[in-house]
Amino acid sequence: MPNPTALTPYPATITKIDVEAGDTKTFTVVFDDPEIMENFGNQPGQVCMLSAFGEGESTISITSSPTRGKFLEFCVRRVGRLTSVLHQMEVGQKIGVRGPYGNGFPYEMMKGKDLFFIGGGSALAPIRSLIDYVLSDQYRSDYGRVEILYGARSMDDVLFKSDLAERWPAIQNTKIYTTIDRPEEGWNGHVGFVPPFIEEVAPTPENKIVILAGPPILIKLGLAVMEKLGFKDEQIITTLEMRMKCCLGKCGRCNVGSKFICVDGPVFSLAQLKEMPPEY
Amino acid sequence: MESRVVNKGQISELLDKLAKDYNLFAPVKDETMTLFRRVSGAQDVLLDYNNSDISPKGCFLPQNEKTFSYMYTGDSLEINKPEGAQKTVLFGARPCDIKAVLTFDPVFEGVKFGDEYYSSKRENSIIIGLSCTKVLSTCFCYAMGGGPCDITGSDLLLTEIGDKYYVEVITEKGQALVDAYSQIFAKQDTAQLAKDKDELAKKLSGEFVRKVDLTGVKELMDNNFELPYWSGDDQKKCISCGICTYVCPTCHCFDIFDYTTGDFTGDRIRCWDSCMYPEYTLEAGGHNPRPTRKERIRNRFMHKIKYHLDRYNMVGCVGCGRCVIKCPVNIDITKIINDLKEVAQNA
User: How far is B7 from chain A (nearest CA, A)?
Assistant: First the structure.
């Protein structure tokens, strides 16, 4: 549902806060007007502008899948001014939300295929909306095997711990790989950076789509690994982020060449990325 | 298309009437510069000017604009939006600046997302253009598809000829205005004035000093994002002051912030921003996709001569020459266009 009020957010209430890591929280948010909640129509991979009144707005991806219910989840790392204000908020407090914005993941094109998700750091947040969409009871049979490779700096930085350890592995035909950057006491999984770990797991390109999200360095190195493994540009999907103010394709700052990440993205295939200047 | 005549002696009467019936924006002389402001009558208006220092873009995209006000206590929230725009006349804008407004239209009146603040002002405004009578050494509107007497985008265009203004009625809005003030916009034989205007346009078109040719530049840039040219001495001069974007009539980038008064209430404001500032694309996490002046300069000029064309099929420059005049280190878009053509052809 395109927001007819453009720059004006809808009032919404924080109904739940989960602490994911020392600097990261997931906020569950519900619009005060049930009709807006009902018709919001967010798609996996889309984003919203969150308002903390008195501080301003920031672009935050919707980490929940619409299949999970009539609420929105935003996973927010405390890095700047607005996110610091959000982190001080409590259940019951009001924020402003406008959206949903962006193109979202091409989940129709992915039907009948195996999916290999790669996430680094807080970038598990934007792809989690698609993971939960394809793993939902409603759509699980439309997709093949689902594998998720996730890397974090340390054990504490691992997001969505229960999803990775319990909820997703319990669903049929899934496989989860996790890694942390350096060895730590109590960690029995893989240790090392994400790009070499992808090479080690070595997914094969047959009938597979890769969804890759991470900081710019991971995207650049990860894309190189996928190409080496024989994946074609059309099989690799990623989601970008840049600073945004309006999210409507007007304020100017999120352009990469002639494209605006906010309205033409944030989701691009590697084939599309190669048509754009490397300025993200 | 109808045309009328206004005697110079009646222009004050016209401006006074417009100021009474509309919000009238017109060129004024401030202490040090010419710019467009809301005026209360003819006495404030500067009619004899070449090109204002600041373009009239603020008439449609104010430098600071409240998008809404809020009352927020943590667990209660109330949002109030301002009323729509009032009836406005923009008087005396030059053809290049009016063409610049047309480059705003597809940005703010996009298919997917409109902009009620912009549209409301645009719909409620009448633009009365004023043909140029001189060409400055920095002008190059002809190279961007415009001209000193171009009617494009105006509702009415006035051209000063002798002791008269020749008035071309271009749109229905313009027609309604001349009909409403028919005692000032006289119906006369305008054949000679039309001929005089053509001659003026012809004379002025021969007076441009700067030779700029945009032909093929976009196509050359399509496949030449990386050019050593962008790291050249010319570009290193930039001091990221942002004046080029401030005076540019087609620059529309904005920031959004909250102005809070500390008592639970505040306003959300959008204000002009500049792609030449390092913070413009700086992300909270520290990453900056355009970290140095090289990337920022490239982005600004590519936006003008390629990106805006790619997206909206319009050049993002109207050749007003303001950035050429105001740049403190003499970065010159006409030189850059000519250089790029040469560099890309040899790349």
Answer: 42
End-to-end CA distance of chain B: 48
Query: A67: which residues sit within 8 A by CB, 6+ positions away?
Result: A132, A133, A136, A138, A139
The domain limits of chain A are 10-101, 114-239
DSSP bridge partners of A118: A149, A212
Q: pLDDT tens-digit profile of B236-281?
A: 899 999 999 999 999 999 999 999 887 789 999 999 999 999 999 9
Q: How far apart are the first and last CA of chain A?
A: 28
Residues of chain B with C-beta less than 8 angstroms from the C-beta of A7: 67-68, 115, 117, 256, 268, 270
Q: Which residues of B24-45 are buried (b: 16+ CB within 10 A; e: fewer)?
A: bbbbbeeeeeebbbebeebebb
Alpha helices, H only, chain A: 34-39, 81-87, 124-134, 161-162, 194-201, 216-228, 261-264, 270-273
Q: What is the mean pLDDT of residues A163-171?
A: 95
Measure the CA angle with vertex A75, ends A261 and A130; round to 5°. 65
Scanning the structure block, which residue is given the tokens 């990623």?
A238
Q: How far apart are CA A20 and CA A156, in angstroms?
A: 8
Report chain B residues whose CB lies below 8 A from the CB of A57.
256
* A210-228 confidence digits (pLDDT tens): 999 998 888 889 989 999 9
- Is A123 in contact with A215 (CB distance < 8 Å)? yes
- Minimal CA–CA distance to A223: which of A257, A231, B70? A231
CA-based nearest distance B54→chain A, Å? 20
d(CA B144, CA B96): 9
C-alpha–C-alpha distance, residues B346 and B324, integer Å: 26
Write down the pLDDT at residue A2.
Answer: 42
Between B112, B284, B310, which is nearest A79 by CB? B284
Which of B267, B130, B263, B268 minimizes the C-alpha distance to B197? Answer: B130
Cis-peptide, bond into residue B228, ω within 30° of zero: no
Residue contact B72–A53, C-beta within 8 A: yes
Interstrand relation of B265-272 and B64-72 (parallel, antiparallel or unpaired): antiparallel
Nearest chain A residue to B313, by CA: A258
CATH 2.40.30.10 fits A10-101, yes or no: yes
Q: Which fold has domain A114-239?
A: Rossmann fold (3.40.50)
For the record, the structure tokens of B120 come out as 């409301």
A251: distance to nearest CA of chain B, Å?
Answer: 5
CB < 8 Å to B289, chain A: 216, 242, 256, 279-280
| Confidence band of A5 (pLDDT split at 50, 70, 90) | low
| Paired tokens of A169 | 């592995």
**Could you tell me the mean pLDDT of each successive run of 10 residues in chain B, 347 residues long?**
92 96 95 93 92 95 95 90 92 96 93 89 96 95 95 96 95 96 93 95 94 89 88 86 96 95 89 95 91 93 94 95 95 92 80
Please tell me the pTM assigned to this model.
Answer: 0.92
Instruction: List, as ranges, residues 78-137 from A with C-beta within 8 Å of B.
Output: 79-83, 92-94, 96
The conformation of residue A126, written as its DSSP 8-state character, comes to H
Task: Answer yes or no: do B307 and A255 touch at CB < 8 A.
Answer: yes
- Please, how many CA atoms are within 13 Å of residue A24, restricted to the half-sphere of its CB? 20
